[in-house]
Write a structure and sequence with these properties.
single chain, eight-stranded mixed beta sheet, two-stranded antiparallel sheet, about 40% helix
């Protein structure tokens, strides 16, 4: 028997810092409500499914948080305040440009009067200055709030709290649910306390993670503009599954993409229609990111959504 979302919250303890996170969310959303700002919750990165209470092993997925971190930057550029809820150690807005050794490769160590002085190599100065300026602007204006999760349980707890905090913004809130959430989990009371022994084969029973789109749309943020994502490896399933989700949960949009082409082509699926957003080869060669086009399109749709809901109220 599958666990309902209500049962999941009863059976799984909240993260230790949930109360502090909820306070930060409340202060952030109330501040932007007073400013009449539009706010987007961007979820990003994958979730883990622990196999033990004292976790050594876990089930994971490949998501590095690229879609979410890139999109968050473009929402900020367009004037939105952003709650960026991301997996620990996944990509983050602005710092994503310097993963690996990229940042160290931009620096030069000079000696002046016997002291080491770090400088940015001339060919990187403009790029680094632009990214730093955007980050400082978002930070100084209080437009970026970051929350982190690791496990699927933590994600579900923080998601509910973020949604409940956003409810006061009504139609000025967007939920951009780009995180790759685990489909399966092991109930807390069935987890091994200690590391599973490797002395022989193991049989592990996984249950389905409850889908939260139903309570999210109907109870937690019923007036928000809700966008989910659908990734598939079989093109024949992509649109039917996106439409099935829309029909079942009654949210606003599904952004559908194939695993192999997700960085250059997506399909925007709504109740009324569907259309492709894609990058040309020339745009790809110039380093254009498809998230820039996705966010621009969503902002237009959100503006229309706000006008439509205000007329009907």
């Amino acid at each position: 028997m599958n666990t309902t979302w209500e049962e999941f919250y009863v059976k799984h303890s909240p993260p230790q810092d949930l109360a502090q996170s909820e306070l930060s969310l409340k202060e952030f959303t109330e501040r932007h409500l007073k400013k009449n700002s539009k706010v987007v919750l961007v979820t990003s990165g994958g979730t883990t499914t622990p196999l033990e209470h004292n976790t050594v092993r876990f089930v994971d997925n490949f998501s590095a948080g690229t879609r979410g971190s890139v999109s968050a930057e473009y929402f900020l550029e367009k004037g939105y305040a952003v709650i960026f809820m991301h997996r620990v150690k996944s990509l983050e807005p602005y710092s994503r440009h310097f993963i690996g050794h990229k940042f160290l490769d931009m620096l030069k160590d000079d000696q002046r009067e016997g002291k080491h002085v770090l400088t940015v190599l001339p060919q990187y100065t403009e790029q680094l200055t632009m990214i730093l300026h955007k980050y400082k602007e978002a930070s100084s204006q209080g437009k970026l709030l970051q929350l982190t999760f690791t496990t699927v349980s933590e994600y579900l707890w923080y998601l509910r709290s973020a949604c409940q905090a956003l409810a006061c913004l009504k139609n000025k809130a967007i939920l951009y649910l780009a995180a790759a959430v685990s489909d399966f989990y092991i109930p807390s009371n069935e987890l091994s306390v200690h590391k599973i022994p490797s002395s022989g084969p193991q049989t592990i029973s996984l249950q389905l993670v409850p889908k939260l789109l139903a309570p999210l749309v109907n109870l937690w943020v019923p007036q928000a503009f809700v966008v989910s994502f659908k990734l598939e490896t079989d093109e024949n399933l992509l649109i039917p599954k996106a439409r099935s989700a829309l029909n079942k949960y009654k949210h606003n949009l599904v952004i559908a993409n194939m695993l192999q082409t997700r960085k250059q082509r997506v399909i925007i699926v709504s109740q009324e229609n569907e259309y492709v957003i894609s990058l040309t080869d020339e745009q790809l060669n110039k380093g254009v990111e498809i998230e820039q086009l996705i966010v621009s399109d969503l902002i237009d749709r959100h503006e229309y959504f706000i006008r439509s809901t205000e007329k009907s109220s």
